[in-house]
Amino acid sequence: xxxxxxxxxxxxxxxxxxxxxxxxxxxxxxxxxxxxxxxxxxxxxxxxxxxxxxxxxxxxxxxxxxxxxxxxxxxxxxxxxxxxxxxxxxxxxxxxxxxxxxxxxxxxxxxxxxxxxxxxxxxxxxxxxxxxxxxxxxxxxxxxxxxxxxxxxxxxxxxxxxxxxxxxxxxxxxxxxxxxxxxxxxxxxxxxxxxxxxxxxxxxxxxxxxxxxxxxxxxxxxxxxxxxxxxxxxxxxxxxxxxxxxxxxxxxxxxxxxxxxxxxxxxxxxxxxxxxxxxxxxxxxxxxxxxxxxxxxxxxxxxxxxxxxxxxxxxxxxxxxxxxxxxxxxxxxxxxxxxxxxxxxxxxxxxxxxxxxxxxxxxxxxxxxxxx
Length: 372
Known about the structure:
Layout: E1 7-13, E2 18-22, H1 31-49, E3 54-61, H2 71-84, E4 88-89, E5 95-103, E6 115-123, E7 128-136, H3 142-150, E8 154-155, H4 164-176, E9 181-183, E10 186-188, E11 195-202, E12 210-211, E13 215-217, E14 220-222, E15 230-237, E16 242-249, E17 252-253, E18 267-270, E19 274-278, E20 280-282, E21 287-295, E22 311-322, E23 340-349, E24 353-359, E25 364-371
Parallel strand pairs: 3-4, 3-5, 14-25
Antiparallel strand pairs: 1-2, 1-24, 2-18, 5-6, 6-7, 8-25, 9-10, 11-12, 11-15, 13-14, 15-19, 15-21, 16-17, 16-18, 16-22, 20-21, 21-23, 22-24, 22-25
Helix pairs in contact: 1-2
């Protein structure tokens, strides 16, 4: 069988039906982490050649033609990789790292969806001293990482048994014409898609949540969130199988701040025909911080590094999943992996328990943006 046998661990929040999936043990690094790690190694070597052991980090900017705000997600990887080379962060350091990522437009790879990540090292005179880049491709799980990085809305239900390269080519077609369906307050990819996301907002000073009204603007979905608002996500799974959903906000995983890191969850589980609410950044198996819209300096992403991005991006990726290693017939032979900000709100107590599931292929990704 060619489907990916990927055992993961699930922590379930019983009262609200919210579930968390912890990573499989000894899981290989993702394609984005590998690429940024390779770039970071070269940057580290350059810094040491200049007798520098400290550096400051500025914005990593996304593509102007397909706006997203995943710079902080890249920065979290970069900081960790630089630390391995004993390069420390210091806002007053003599040298500065900044960068950008974008969809590559290359005639030699015109059928492929490729993201290029470039980092620059500059001095305080604004002079660029070196430039290092690498490309994120469909290999080693890069397809899903590109979805999260670029805030892409894709529907791959008809391509679960396709090769990663074929899925990548289908994704590129959908980047040019994103599949979007607004069903009342729910954001979907198509009319028949069984997966959907709703955004609920509790305005600053209010006591209750209410649904937001999404808008389709040229294939990109926007909701209105204001400074001081608290929001939560409702994930819909209208299938006969359980679904795992990863949630990233401004490129930072919603479970990034879970402690201890060794047992950190990586996904939320939605029961068949049910919904689950993702209410915030989970800190451990007992509590979370609400999603808060506010100054980016107070956001969860800013707890890693600051960003001046003017856009907030929420990305939810849905995967079918099941108990045991035998997939359902539909997935037998399928292929798988390969201003304002969202900040830390008040703590909310949540209790969890651990289960296990096998993760299926990426079927649907839903991206929702909000202006800062």
